[in-house]
Amino acid sequence: MNPRGILLLAFIALVAGLSGQAAATVPTWGVRVVNSYPHDTGAFTEGLVYKNGFLYESTGLEGHSSIRKVELKTGRVLREYELPGVYFGEGIVPWKDRLIQVTWRTGIGFVYDLSTFRLRSSFHYPGEGWALTSDATRLIMSDGTSNIRFLDPDTLRETGHVTVTANGKPVLNINELEWVKGRLYANIWMTNTVAVIDPKSGHVIAWVDVAPLAAMVGERGDDAVPNGIAYDPAGDRLFVTGKLWPRLFEVRLASPTR
Domains, the chain, ranges and CATH? Predict the structure, then answer.
């Protein structure tokens, strides 16, 4: 996303305050690269999903936002729908025969046909939309704050929320989400850190350091941060990429580094 100065400063202050104590109570895991695949360097990745052998990706920026169906091994875009220029595309999640997307500051989400990307309907929500995932019974949405919202997948209305905390303090800038084995994995915006969250309590139970992946793709500008987590439950494969990154990585979690 484009810089959100106040939230970013607040998060930096939070990280500084936690740095002396977080490592003592919340383990930090590393990553080991299993495979690497091509990724479109023009994709400002805001949402990433693996389903039925393909990646589905949402890209952001006004005038450049889209939803895409992507071939994993080649990075080739097989189908694409471009959003009207006023919208900044954000997270996506498949639900039955639909693909559901939120947008950043317009308070409007869209529902597409999963097979054709035909726009079927729209819906509204308060605040900002950052990311979507699902636990198979409800949708889960981030809005850039420390709160995670739960939505009814049919009505798309909020049914509850949980506050994400680490050592009792709120964790801000929760971005792209993925449901992995009963846990929420979340990119923390403008950092090389993924939070592993207990969805019931909101507690961060682990951090994942993806800085080595960022180093592999090299310096690509201030906005080219890690953002995009997808999981293949059948193959037990975890995928990670970033905005404007040239590669998408299949990774395994490594032993705690601290």
Answer: 5-26+41-208 (2.130.10.10)
